[in-house]
Amino acid sequence: MNLIIRIAEREDMKSVLLLINELAEFERETDVVNLTYDDLIRDGFSDPPLFVCFVAVLNNQIVGMSLSYSRYSTWKGKTMHLEDLIVTEKERGTGIGNALFSNFIKYSHSKGVKRIEWAVLNWNINAIKFYESKGAVVYDDWHIAQMNETAIKNFISNK
Amino acid sequence: MNLIIRIAEREDMKSVLLLINELAEFERETDVVNLTYDDLIRDGFSDPPLFVCFVAVLNNQIVGMSLSYSRYSTWKGKTMHLEDLIVTEKERGTGIGNALFSNFIKYSHSKGVKRIEWAVLNWNINAIKFYESKGAVVYDDWHIAQMNETAIKNFISNK
Prior knowledge:
Two copies of one chain form a homodimer. The first copy, chain A, is of the alpha+beta class. Helices cover 35% and strands 33% of the residues of chain A. Chain A has one domain (3-158): Gcn5-related N-acetyltransferase (GNAT) (Aminopeptidase, 3-Layer(aba) Sandwich), CATH 3.40.630.30. The first copy, chain A, has helices spanning 13-26, 37-44, 96-110, 125-133, 149-158; strands at residues 3-7, 52-58, 61-73, 77-87, 115-121, 137-139, 142-148. Chain A has a five-stranded mixed β-sheet, with helices on both faces. Chain A is globular. The relative contact order of chain A is 0.13. Chains A and B meet through helix 1, strand 3, strand 4, helix 3 and strand 5 of A and helix 1, strand 3, strand 4, helix 3 and strand 5 of B.
């Protein structure tokens, strides 16, 4: 298998956006991806960039990606967050996800962070088992709270 | 009540660290705060800073703080994450948390983000009710996965 994991370049963002849309469908969500190709170029290649993206290239085709950025823990200091790890459906189960995950951990370790973190859907048992097999702990006592654009605007206009 | 919410300065970090330790106790965790005063100075006042901190000052005393940073959603683009919102125990219930939260939302709105996000412990019913009253949605179908320093090192050395 001729697989290369490398840092993404501007011209890879079209393939990256296709993978993002594919994952949204897998997560049973549609019409949620507002992000455009131009957004990815602007945000991923600014100074400083808002994220770091790696792509998995199999026989010259992009078949997977990881997208991450740093966060901050008031207990541990600088941490890394894995926002997405995506392998296109027909290439799953071939070790590409493993290679992308391993690359992400090594990259984070090279940045000296003391914690790596990400979110996983509670019904995605395969993913949870995969992560636990890698030494991750999956916590079910934390909930994620979000305000979307409408909620933010409502809050502001009610003040 | 002579309450001022303002952006934190270097010399506020001692009070901020005291608040961080107070929250760790409230969350039933001890010996988890590895962060030092020097870490907070280095990370919060670097270029770019790793977080933005606001303090609540009541009669010239720091009684609360919010600490946040930007994240990135592959659906929405740049988002804001509220890592901590802390009010010292004896000043709770007096509107200071509300003022810090409101300040954080306005700050995030000024940055043009389309989503604001944070984590809440599932047994912290008062916090969940407070957030929902502000228009937030609390999701229970996402779990948080983490690898700590030991898990990262084990992973690296097994490769």
